[in-house]
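Q: what does this look like with magnesium ion bound?
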Amino acid sequence: FKLPYDRCSPKEKQGFAYVSLVKRWPVVLTNIVSAVSNVNHQLHMNPDEYSEAKINEGKKIISQISQMKYDLGHNAILTPIENDGDINRECYNDELKTYPDEDRRWGTMNWLYAECYMYRRLRSYFASTIYWKEYDPFFEQKSETYKSSSNAILHLTKSINQAIKDKEKLNENFEEKGSKLEIAFLEMIQADLWGNATDLSLLVDLNYKDLQKLQAVGSDSQKEQFKFILKNDLIKVWNYLKKLNTKQNGGRIDFILDNSGFELFTDLILADFLISCTPFINKVVFHPKAIPWFVSDVLPYDFTWAIDSLLDPSFFTSHSSTPISSEDLNSLSDLANRWKDHLKTGKFQLSVPEDTKLGKATPLGRIWTTQYAFQDLPEVAPGTLDELKKSDLVIFKGDLNYRKLVGDAWWPTTTPFEEALGPLAGKITLLSLRTNKADTIVGLEEGVAERLDKEDPDWRISGKYAVVSFSEKR
Ligand code: F6P
Ligand code: MG
């Protein structure tokens, strides 16, 4: 799809692409070097028969990452990704060939390509080893933030367990405007929207206190947050979902997942709410990433692990300011056991099998870790699109998925969302839940961007604002 506007690029020194290149990516890379060094140190302390070989591979990975960090700082040329036997290599190398030399540098390449390329190239260093193939360099970080989200997790757990108990009452006259079910839905979906603020690739700039504030749960803080949703299609989505009631076997929702930990937890809460409390939906398919991606994105292992951790009584205790009561532990295990049940009965389904830590990438699982914008899905991944067409609503979570939906371009901010979707528009019914962490944005009313530029210059990237954009199949 030929974009009518340029893509964001670090060439523009005032954009977030430039900040990413000079500030954020070096920190992401340095953190991986520390993670690998820690493992190497442990191996030194407690050697086994493979330690020496693994340590040596670890050292090689460290030097490759350090080289990449040097390259980004020195505007080096991007080179093809070497054969490492893993998925999605040719797509990067093929596209790379199409750029003239002056664009093919860290400081001049379009941001969407360069950032995806960086994570794919990182993967290459691990994939081409014997002992680090299954290693996820971001796992520790993901697990730490999940643990520190216990307050919000407990709050949501109690809300949904209660909602399920009150199901009958909740469903009374649900078609009516402002019904109890509608209000509950709005609460659950907003928790899921703001759950996206918990993105570890951004925690380079955000601190943990901000993070807890961003995990807005509870109706008061949600009301407070409502004004930060700059385009809000939530009611349209509700009206659409209500109509699925008439489908014989109930509807199907797909989540194109974004981050692990708290955000994933809120995805599961929304999914469970739709299945257990409403008459509309009976199946939810979750699409994780097949390789470690943008620091915090969900891998198949993270998915299972997030649910299992809720059953471990000691999991949250080390990080919680208030001790977790046995009643709380019971609520958590009710929730986790219900989710396991949904997985057994097929009401929840993970689209990538969990036979290894990283899962086995099915063709459908591969597309999410390519560099392609989703406008190009009809052309580059017709099979994936056919699968998504079976869904009644495909929910794209988060900032990167949003950037891909609109091609990460400098659209005028009042461009209709449908127009920015290009050839994808009308092919599936889709919803994007995104907190704003990058410059590109569409679907705003006249004057909004100009007002915010004056009032809160970081509004495009701070994660404080959000857009909820819905588009129906035609
Ligand atoms: O723009 C900031 C950023 O960290 C980008 O790297 C990326 O687009 C994105 O946010 C990751 O956020 P999310 O996890 O919401 O996709
Ligand atoms: Mg992410």
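Residues 200-208 have pLDDT under 50 and may be disordered. The chain is about 50% helix and 10% strand.
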